[in-house]
């Protein structure tokens, strides 16, 4: 029987492999903006990206996963903290894995 693969990502065995993101890093901001834009497309919403509050990333072969906490605002001015998981590949773009309120 084959051994179980790690749930966090290739070669990652526990949460000590996670690296905190720097919310002001332009790449992290770009990934946060992508997550909100993609969520708006999929959910038919019009949320506005405000900032990345925090999160973690972990590298895997071919890219990196980013689990972010994102502050958004709706058309009435209400603000929200939302969570997103994005897979980013340096040469092939990004994919939104999930987005949660």
Task: Note down, in words, how this protein is organized.
The chain is an alpha+beta fold and 101 residues long. The protein has a single domain, classed as Nuclear Transport Factor 2, Chain: A. The protein contains one helix and five strands; from the N terminus they run E-H-E-E-E-E. It has one helix at residues 26-43; strands spanning 19-20, 48-60, 63-73, 79-89, 93-100. A five-stranded antiparallel beta sheet has the order 1-2-3-4-5. Strand 2 and strand 3 form a beta hairpin. The protein is globular and about 40 Å long. The N and C termini lie far apart (39 Å).
Give the CATH level 1 class: Alpha Beta
Main sheet: strands, sense, barrel:
5 strands, antiparallel
Number of domains: 1
Mean pLDDT score, rounded? 88
Strand tally is 5
**Class computed from helices, strands and strand pairing:** alpha+beta
State the helical fraction.
Answer: 10-25%
| Low-pLDDT runs | 1-8
CATH architecture: Roll
Tally the helices: 1
| C-alpha Rg (nearest Å) | 15 Å
Per DSSP, what share of the residues sits in E-state strands of 2 or more residues? Answer: 35-45%
Head-to-tail CA distance between termini: 39 Å
Arrangement of strands in the largest sheet: 1-2-3-4-5
Give, in order, the helices and strands: EHEEEE
Keywords: Membrane, Protease inhibitor, Thiol protease inhibitor, Transmembrane, Transmembrane helix
Protein name: Cysteine proteinase inhibitor 5-like
Domain Cystatin: 25-93
GO molecular function: cysteine-type endopeptidase inhibitor activity
